[in-house]
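Page 42, continued from yesterday. The earlier attempt failed because a stray header line got pasted into the input along with the sequence. Redoing it now with the clean sequence only.
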Amino acid sequence: MKIYTNSNSAFPSQVVPDAEKATFEYGSQVASAIETEWFGAGRTNGNRYLTSFNNFHHLRLYARGEQSVQK
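This time it went through. Structure tokens are written below.
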């Protein structure tokens, strides 16, 4: 098994004992990293959640035949 490490990651180290991973603090760090990854860029710069939301919205409009004719 190969262990990937990234010092720039917001996620806590995965190379810790299972007892530490079972703690509330470790889970909170993981949840915080996920939140930062999905919502951290802000509304003006775009973030993963809003980008996905807008993409699905445009695809739904296209599927219903309601896409913009400005292309």
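Notes: The helical segments are 18-21, 24-39, 48-63.
Reminder to self: strip header lines before submitting.
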